[in-house]
Amino acid sequence: MSNLQISLAIVGGLVLAGVVAYNAWVTRRNTPRTAREPEPDPAPADTLPQADDGAPLPESLRRAEAAMPRPALDPEARIEPTFGAELAGEPSERIEPSLDGDAPVTVVPAEASDAPRTPPVVPITLNTMVPTLEKRPGLDALIDVIAPLALDGLVSGEAVIAALPATRRVGSKPFAVEGLNDSTGEWESPRPGQRYKALQAGVQLANRMGPLNEIEFSEFVMKAQAFADTVGAAPDFPDMLAEVARARELDVFASGHDAQLGFTLRARRIAWSPGYVAQQAARVGFVAGALPGRMVLPVSQPGQAPLLSLSYDTQAAMADDPEQSALREVALSLEVTHVPCSEQPFVRLRQAAAALADAMDGVVTDDAGRALSNEALDAIGADLDNLYEALDGRDLSAGSPQARRLFS
């Protein structure tokens, strides 16, 4: 072969090797990371059979010892398990049930140890993962149009429920009826077996669909009047123009103070599978949500809206083989007006985003794909502080029932 042929063969081999290496790199880059099973802890050396000098026995001897017959235990000579500390006359731990019915908490008496106390670790149970339903907030003159319905006498809860309209909405606004309980003296949604001495109907002034308008107010009057006629009540409706003006003013305030924050976590190199995302998010504290491809971070108080939500492609989550689906980004979102300021939601959002980015080899960006610096995040935090103060000044504190209804 001539030198030219040899050179061409070498160049061709290098090109072929480069193509193979590039294809391998592309395949590896497009193969998503999958969730890993936790590795079992290796057995400690002191649990293995040992010789007289303390060294572990060889594998062959351990197998021989395991194959040897064991003497039968006498059931009459059985020793019940006890706490060694009690036998020695020392104070022992006692197990007391928690007040909320969750997992028991170990309580150590003060005289048992001089070491500093540490808070007990309570295992995660279904009760801590699935919040209980919160009682529906009642009508509030701050965000509702309320029409009193006077009664000549007591009316049963069954009669009130039977007279309720089929739909509980007026246009795009929620419609509700409440009764003044004769025994408790509190306003509540009608319940069977109760008796009410007064009723009131209400419609929300504004929500994210806009303010209450004249047409919706007229529909509210007709719906409330029909209900009052059925139960034999006399309604007293407020002035329409005044209530519509109040609705517009409330909507202007809500539009200027509604905030929904969203961060995007993007993969730097290797994509993720849905199982890998769920595994890493669970380590930060997220639990599965009600919809595929959505996880939530619960707040400290049960029944409240979730602190944060994490979402990714729903089709990838519902695929026949989700582990073969490749995700290159997930979204972290915070409903600012739905979470109390005491939960420090923005701080938790930053911490969760940073922890996931570090564990998953990702980068935190905005919706446009621009990486978010610490300076930009600090500026967002300062704006949120001003937002919380404005909401508090209007008696619509973030996370309150009124705020959650208004910003919905």
Automatic annotation (TrEMBL):
Lineage: Bacteria, Pseudomonadati, Pseudomonadota, Betaproteobacteria, Burkholderiales
One GO-annotated biological process of the protein: cell division
Domain ZipA C-terminal FtsZ-binding: 257-384
Top-level taxonomic group: Bacteria
Transcription regulation among keywords: no
Region described as Disordered: 31-70
SMART domains the record matches: ZipA_C (SM00771)
Entry keyword annotation includes Cell division: yes
Species: Hydrogenophaga electricum
InterPro entries noted in UniProt: ZipA_FtsZ-bd_C, ZipA_FtsZ-bd_C_sf
Protein name stated in the entry: Cell division protein ZipA
UniProt keyword list: Cell cycle, Cell division
